């Protein structure tokens, strides 16, 4: 009897795992079954207005919805234009004024992700 109960529990865990994996593959990890995340666009899209650029290595960004959440968190900041790439696990951030690394980390953290590193580009 105990063996049957243990086998049943293992089967249930396997079914739930396969179901979760299937949802992630077909719909994305953090937006499974939900509405797509609306994009927050920067007010100014002229690259010449952004003299400072940083590349951020983002932890936990695994799908397009994750990338959009990171972009939105950064694009909500004044004078920032961000573009995230979930496959590379990084985001390019253009700034009108140089921001402190801590400000960028807080914005990414508010979206639920971590920052592994920030590289200032020329």
UniProtKB/TrEMBL annotation:
Coiled coil feature spans: none
Gene Ontology terms for molecular function: metal ion binding
Domain HMA: 52-116
InterPro entries per the UniProt record, alphabetical: HMA_dom (IPR006121), HMA_dom_sf (IPR036163)
A Pfam family reported for this protein in Swiss-Prot or TrEMBL: HMA
Name of protein: Heavy-metal-associated domain-containing protein
